[in-house]
Design goal:
- The chain is an alpha+beta fold and 266 residues long.
- It contains 10 helices and 8 strands.
- It has an 8-stranded mixed β-sheet.
- Helix 1 runs antiparallel to helix 5 and helix 3 packs across helix 5.
- This is N-acetyltransferase domain-containing protein.
- It holds the Pfam family Acetyltransf_1.
Length: 266
């Protein structure tokens, strides 16, 4: 078995790989975010307003006023890029402090998906079949991976919610693009939900952006429901993005069942 992904608990040193992976994911969404911001109503309103001011109050020729269009496009591009950089910096700060934020008490945790694969691969990871397993399953299998390359390809964390009584937040659910649609994200989410059930949480909430359509589909398949939608401003109303807050309701009988039949949703 030469291609394996193991979901395991976070270990010191993982932050370097997690930080780079999540930063790359945020920056790869830049093009989609730029196009979305470019076609927002507020962008067209800004173009028209600036052109009207130049034409009416300064008496500039109409052809000169049209120059406002590429200027606004450039401002949108720069603002979107700066927004992505700010989000990446915020995420970087959180990942750097995973031991303090996620691993300092029994009611929160952080997991990574670690791929074991040959050092030399003739094709992209997306073209190979990977066996996905938990850390316990990996230990029980006694598979020798001493000659395999290791790379972190996914993350997920769970924290106690400060907004909902007995509620949990699932955060940083991410799988590197080359390893998606193999079951990695599904097992990461299942492990986080099982942890929430075992710790007696009443619900688990999760927020995804408008650019994470695949992640939302996975959550809905797991039983999440849409709680609310809202826009988060990064740099004013012109540079904002739509967020979906999803919730997973944990029934009381699920808590009892998890105590008597552990790992019931994995």
């Amino acid at each position: 078995m030469s291609h394996i992904v193991v979901i395991r608990g976070y270990k010191p040193g993982d932050e370097l790989y997690c930080r780079d992976m999540i930063k790359d994911a945020i920056m790869t969404s830049f093009n989609s975010a730029f196009i979305a911001n470019l076609f927002k109503e507020v962008t067209f309103q800004l173009m028209i307003l600036c052109a009207a001011i130049m034409f009416i109050f300064f008496g500039m020729p109409f052809t000169v006023c049209l120059l406002v269009i590429p200027i606004v496009i450039f401002i949108t591009y720069a603002g979107t890029y700066l927004g992505c950089v700010m989000i990446a910096a915020e995420t970087n700060q959180e990942i750097t402090n995973v031991p303090r934020i996620y691993m300092s008490n029994a009611f929160s945790c952080f997991w990574v998906a670690e791929a074991f694969q040959p050092y030399l691969m003739m094709r992209e990871p997306k073209d190979y079949h990977y066996t996905i397993m938990t850390e316990q399953q990996f230990r029980d299998s006694k598979i020798d991976v001493s000659s395999q390359a290791r790379v972190i390809v996914g993350t997920v964390g769970l924290l106690k919610s400060h907004k909902v009584e007995k509620g949990a937040w699932i955060k940083r659910l991410h799988v590197e693009k080359k390893y998606r649609r193999k079951g990695v994200g599904s097992l990461l989410l299942s492990i986080a939900l099982q942890f929430a059930i075992d710790e007696g949480y009443s619900c688990a909430d999760l927020v995804t952006s408008e650019y994470a359509e695949g992640g939302r589909e996975l959550c809905f398949k797991k039983g999440f429901e849409l709680k609310q939608m809202y826009h988060k401003q990064v740099i004013g109303p012109m540079f904002s993005y739509l967020l979906y807050e999803l919730t997973y309701q944990i029934k009381e009988e699920n808590n009892y069942y998890s105590r008597t039949h552990p790992k019931n949703i994995l």
